[in-house]
Amino acid sequence: MNINHTYQGHAPAILKLLPEKSINCVITSPPYYKLRDYQTPPQIWEDGWQGELGQEPRVYQYIRHLIEIFKECKRVLKDDGTMFINLGDTYLKSGSLANTPSRLRIEMTDYLQLIHRNNIVWYKPNKMPESVTNRITVDFEDILFFTKQEDYYFQQQLEPYTAPMDRWGGDNLIPNGKPSPWDDGTGQTTYRKRNMRPNPDGRNMRTVWKENTVPSDIPHYAKYPPKLIQRMIEAGCPKGGTVLDPFAGAGTTGITARKLGRNFINIELHPDNVKITEDRVEREIGFC
């Protein structure tokens, strides 16, 4: 199969055409459960159900179909590969959360035997108001970070320091033999001399990522911001490597990957989205 190409079709079927251990990084955001009907042709799944992903009558069946897809993603992922899945939760008619991110992370670790390295929170400061008065407005989504094995490719990501280290009196902790007001809280009674900020470029990135959604004239409901994807690509895929998105949508993952010196393989069921992606690739990258 060709790299830097968008393949139109049912994700499990297209994934079976990819060679084993050929992908460096999987980054994707599948359709959320019961959130939106994308009007795609009904697909036949391994359990015999026929329909659109996300429209299953029961949430456990939705998770089963996601596992069917991510099982193939694991097969095509290199041994040192990484996988990032953006998945928001859904309120059911009963008013209860479906807990789809939690259900998926359990099946990914128990059934697929992937290693769950982080649960990242995508915090959206510009979240649109919700017309609810009996619960708290939800302004985040989950990003699940998995690997195939303990030893994997990862480029440390740094974020700038946000405030001076006032509690230590500066970047360097210098013991003076006197009790510290922090002793009771930390249980520490002795300290060694150390630099509290050994890397001048910043601290190791935390798991809450603050990123606004971005306006777009592209007719696609769930286009995530390129800056969000950039962190995953730079952390989990070496330059010259290949990023796979089995739910490509408007093609943001692949386009961002190419701009960062990586290759991509997109899979997308809806033909309109394939056309949107091809137009974007030609306009923003210069080839189609």
Task: Please characterize this protein's 3D structure.
The chain has about 290 residues and is of the alpha/beta class. Strand 3 and strand 4 form a beta hairpin. It starts with a strand and ends with a helix. The model has no long low-confidence stretch (mean pLDDT about 90). The protein contains 7 helices and 14 strands. Helix 2 crosses helix 3 and helix 5 packs across helix 6.
User: How many strands in all?
Assistant: 14
Distance N to C terminus: 15 Å
Shape by Cα distribution: globular
Sheet with most strands:
8 strands, mixed
Order of helices and strands: EHEEEHEHEEEEHEEEHEHEH
Unreliable stretches covering 5 or more consecutive residues: none
Helix percent band? 10-25%
If helices are DSSP runs of H or I spanning 4 or more residues, what is the number of helices?
A: 7
- The proportion of strand residues reads 15-25%
- For the CA atoms, what is the radius of gyration? 22 Å
**In what order do the strands lie side by side in the largest sheet?**
1-14-13-2-5-7-6-12
The secondary-structure class comes to alpha/beta
Quote the average pLDDT: 90
